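ESCALATION

Customer reports they have been waiting on this structure for their group meeting. Please prioritize. Original submission:
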Amino acid sequence: MSLQAYGLLKGKAVATKEERDNNRPHYHIHVKADEENYRISINIKSNDVLSELLFYTDENFEHGITSIITELPYGFYFSNRVSIDYIRGNMGFSRDDMKKIPHDKAGPNNDLNEKLNYYIDEANSSEDTDIYIYGSKWKTGNYCKPDRIFGFSPSMGMHDIHMNQGNIRKWKKDSGVWQDGCLFIHYKEIDKWIGIFLAFQSQSWDNDDCTGQANYKYKKKKR
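Update from on-call: job pushed to the front of the queue and completed.
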């Protein structure tokens, strides 16, 4: 089994909200895609013993997929043609390039909230910048209930903005190939792309090419 609502959202970032002190903290981005509003909820801390996420940013991202997605109108797409796979997609990095990062730490520019703020705030301040989010789409069944973070109605958005294969325990069923989450920021005037990639430390990078499930049995490790 794999993610059931995986796809790509293209839009404009208009606001952000940090959630540092929640039991399951997230970093939220309000994205507008024409007339639709989305809340992008990014995991910034794992529930596993290895709580720090792995983080990698390519500030000069180059990949053939950018020429495809830049032509898309604003909106959400369920399309295999524009899927992402950290392992099989020639993304230009490996697990060794990703660094552990805390979600909340005293001091400047040293935790995941601050790293995301740095890039997303730049995107917010520029009318000529598009944001692309890979992950799973969700929406509420109650069209009268406003979004709990940004207040728009109906509430809908995306999550799973991270690697989605080689998962452990109850998340194992969500593993699959060509369904990894990430963010791209495109500065159109200068044609510069930034790629932001996230993964959990517990996720395997030695995975079955058909199912995306780990080729070995995960054993819980102590710090």
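Sent to customer with the following note: The mean pLDDT is 91.
Escalation resolved.
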